[in-house]
Predict the structure.
Amino acid sequence: MLGISGLRGLVGRSLKPDLVCRYAAAFGHWLKTARNTDAPAVVLGRDSRPSGVMYENAVAAGLTSVGCRVIRVGILSTPGVAIMADHRGADGGVVITASHNPKPWNGVKLLRHDGVAPPPDEARAIIKLFEDDAAQHADVDALRPEESDGTGAQVHLDRVAQVVDVAAIRAAKLKVVVDSVHGAGGAEAAQLLDHLGVERVHLYAEPTGHFPHVPEPLKENLTQLCDAVRQHGAHAGFAQDPDADRLAIVDEQGAYIGEEYTLVLCAMAQLSTGDTTAANLSTSRMIDDVAAAAGAAVFRTPVGEANVAAAMRAHGATVGGEGGGGVIYRPISQVRDSIVGMALVCELLAKRGRALSAVVAGTPRYAMVKDKIAIVPGSAGPTLAWAAKHYADQKVDVQDGVRVDWADRWVHVRPSNTEPLLRIIAEATSEADARALVNEVRAGIASLRSASS
């Protein structure tokens, strides 16, 4: 898969080191023009997957071959790499990760100097350089030596500690269970929680890359975390994905409250009258309700953190993100960050003085159903055209696929940025109504396929 979210594939099959090297060289070549420098500095980090070293070396070779100065930061979360790019004044960053995909997958995620993934127009320019193999390689005298910097976790902690009420969190004497899934975020989570005086029970903290369960932080994958919260009498449970940009939350009763609540809880503690926030089109309507209660406005964007970050910059938003557990807090960085998400939720609990389940019970509740259909990449056009026409008498948003809104429900149909899938997401006041919307779309797609066969 090659698109605006970067390069991703199966280790030893579609994602071969020579392709990764060429992709990195294309990015380095693009940076030289975009940043107007002959020797762009690029921070290079990775998640904990066993294949990571191989691809890290391939990326380093590609970047060095076009004259870049590579700064290796080792195993570090995606937000940690973005923060280090800013901290070091680098021209860009690269993360070796396949995010929530299982161990057989890996990938390459690109970051600009501001920590944001290149938006679609810039991503297309990089892809064209890659496909045309058009990167201009440097002469030997223009090759730059590499360096290493192991301070990423501490730099991340220092930034978060500056924007939360550390004294209030320490005084609350909180206890949490963290599942880091043997990914990249364990060390950063540990340092943060220890600094905040939060007692922690840490599951799968070591960055081995051998995921103990399906690594996407969904309910069915977090039964052990839920059990541990109950067993240890914790105030909350936190689940990271392998590159630690997503955060899912479990309440003190051991109930999975879900990734959609991560942004909602963080926004709840931050928004006030006149504020703005941004969220993508697949994010729960709960963020609209929380914003309305605070007197704030919500701006919707296409899926992708670069799009959310752009809207946040344009509208002066401090907090925003995506419903899949992705919180962006601009005083820290412009990427999704499970570390700052933990800190903001701990601050919310400390200041509200209420159990997490009680805080959640005070928010409007919806049911969301997520479905997906395998497709041939690039073949989503007829389906999207059908959806726009079929629901033309409703409120239709075509920024990213087709989202249709009614007063009490919505459905979003869009092609995935990372997998050959068509995603169908619906939300309503009951699961039955949300499921009915998904089934209606599936039936329409089936009839469309039948008619074309």
Summary: The two ends are 26 Å apart (CA to CA). The first helix runs from residue 17 to 34. Residues 30 and 406 are 43 Å apart (CA to CA). Residues 154-361 form a domain with the Alpha-D-Glucose-1,6-Bisphosphate; Chain A, domain 3 fold (CATH 3.40.120.10).
